[in-house]
Amino acid sequence: MEQNPLIVGRINGVFGVKGWVKVFSFTDPIGNIVSYQPWQVKTAQGWQQMTVCESQAPQGGKAIIVHLEGVDTREQARDLMGADIAIFRDQLPDDQSGFYWHDLVGLNVENSHGHCYGKVKEFLETGAHDVMRIVGSETYLIPFVMDVYVMSVDFEQKTILVEWPTEQD
């Protein structure tokens, strides 16, 4: 793969005897994963490009059921168990806010007084807000809420400006 893949899901089960697989989607909404074609699937032989022929999204949960081109038996589907599903950044539509969460991972987080909290390691989904997990000398969990806790995102400076108390406050 010539560019860094974005992991958008994982094959976590088989469904039936005709090669269908259960996919745990990391996208929101979960059905969006099917619209990003083709998929790059990490098989035992390495990354392999695959296309979804059909899909079904059962009500509730994070799993969808898909039939991949060339996967026609339960045994072939079983060989894909645990495989990551990835796409490339250019397969995503432009986000209205100008970025996706993966664009923010690795950025420095600081406040208007120059205190550096650390770097964004990941985002956690909670019921109320998505939360940045920031790791520096300590670990911080800061809700990603624009104009409340997050004041700006500067990709040129690789910095997220936040309003968040420090131990000195």
Automatic annotation (TrEMBL):
Pfam families membership: PRC_RimM (PF24986), RimM (PF01782)
Family: Belongs to the RimM family.
RimM N-terminal domain location: 8-90
Quaternary structure, from the entry: Binds ribosomal protein uS19.
Record's keyword terms, sorted: Chaperone, Cytoplasm, Ribosome biogenesis, rRNA processing
Role of this protein: An accessory protein needed during the final step in the assembly of 30S ribosomal subunit, possibly for assembly of the head region. Essential for efficient processing of 16S rRNA. May be needed both before and after RbfA during the maturation of 16S rRNA. It has affinity for free ribosomal 30S subunits but not for 70S ribosomes.
Source species, domain of life: Bacteria
Location relative to the cell: Cytoplasm
PANTHER family found in the cross-reference section: RIBOSOME MATURATION FACTOR RIMM (PTHR33692:SF1)
InterPro entries: PRC_barrel-like_sf, PRC_RimM, RimM, RimM_N, RimM_N_sf, Transl_B-barrel_sf
GO cellular component, as recorded: cytoplasm; ribosome
UniProt name for this protein: Ribosome maturation factor RimM
GO molecular function, one term: ribosome binding
Organism lineage string: Bacteria, Pseudomonadati, Pseudomonadota, Gammaproteobacteria, Thiotrichales
Domain Ribosome maturation factor RimM PRC barrel, chain residue ranges per copy: 101-166
Domain topic, free-text comment: The PRC barrel domain binds ribosomal protein uS19.
GO terms (BP aspect): ribosomal small subunit biogenesis; rRNA processing
NCBIfam families assigned: 16S_RimM
Broad class of the protein's primary localization: cytoplasm
